[in-house]
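To whoever is covering the structure queue this week,

Two jobs came back overnight. Logging them here so there's a record in the thread.

Job A:
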Amino acid sequence: EKEGGTLGLLVAQGVRLRELIMAKASARAVLILPLLALLLWLAALIARTDAATPLDWAALAFLFGVAAAYAAFWLALSMLVNSFDWRSETNGVVLANLWLVFVIVLPSFVNIAAATLYPAPSRVNLTTEMREAAELADAAAAQSREAYLFDHPELAGAGAQLDDFYLQVLATDAAVERVAEPLLTRFEAQAQARERVVGLLQFVSPAIAAQTALNSLAGTDNARFADFVGQVGEFHAGWREYFASRIRAGKRMAAADFDAIPQFAYRPPADALAYSAALGPLLFTLVVTLVLAVWAAVHFRRYAIV
């Protein structure tokens, strides 16, 4: 409007600059927010969300709030850039570069910083060390079996009892786990430290904060994955003990025992945990948006109409 000469005419007709700016911002919000709500509603239908479950719709409402706050951030940022009274071409270039910084450069910087401060242990080295540990444990177990059979030659051959062999296999597995446990613990500790760095650096960009909040609400964040892995580990320990206890007791599997084999069922955490994890990034985005809007309002007070 200013470059075309219509801004001065609008103000001369009694239209305040603040009213004009709010009208333009509201027009864009009216286009974006209903479309966002429609897409979320369609996603809920595709996912067959139960309308009778308040928690599902509460999660969708929270999701809409995060997406709306992220859209408001970009709207406030565009208002701030326009308040500096640059030409429209300059505004477009500045906003495009800011998008690259917030969406691409800063997230890449966060990943590089986390990887530099807490580099992930090499999975190749981890696999190699575990393989070497397994080979050493197998070799030790083989020597034990050979010594045992040398002392009990009646157990060798086709008529040998398999119970002792199975006990040796259990001992071998236990030896491998004892060697691998510190390696896996070190690997997990390094990964957790890296995630803490990412959690702190997420507040350098509203794009990272919004993505973190969305991951928490969707249940695809690192905390949910760690909880899943922990439950899998607990189930595996119980599942293995179910068979190991029978091997140690020399019991054979009966038909009823097969029906009693443990079955894994993931127990998701309470929805309140996901909301609390998403609340921090959401509040950060809202605060940044408010700061940008106030900054833009201060600049527009000194904006030259002509």
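Job B:
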Amino acid sequence: MTAVRQQNQQTGLVTLSAALLLLAACGNKSPDSESNDVSPGLTAATLGEQQVSATADYLAQEPYASANREQGARQAQICRACHSLEKDGPNLIGPALHGFFGRRAGKVEGYAYSPVLMNAGFVWTPRAMDAWLAEPHQFLPGNRMTFVGIPGQADRDALIAYLLEATSSE
């Protein structure tokens, strides 16, 4: 088998795996999640200026200080279907997420963002990520991410706490 054909098959398997994970995860709540189903109601347009802090500062404050990291790691499997989290990780279906907190949205080198995300003008903070994860298409209408969101606040808090640790360079 040629290297190109083998790579195409691997890419197809990754894409299929990602699609199956997304379908399985959409609207799925973990057994210990709160089911408040209330989104923060923020949009990229109403977010305002973001206060960027160090990862340790975010993690020292509620709700992230007491968030369930194991639950966050489980939730992150949804993210891993399309994004790498590791330092120097590749762009996949979605952009690599290592070091994204504190970065302007739509700015990962080598990733072809939608025009709406490239021009969004917000910074990724836990507050922005919470609103994005609640309802990505309400937060930033016209983005291409094929993900319906995570309705439970406890699930989002756990995932954000996990992502703060897993994607930090600190």
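Note for Job B: Confidence is low (pLDDT under 50) at residues 3-40.

Please reply-all if you pick these up so we don't duplicate work.
Q.
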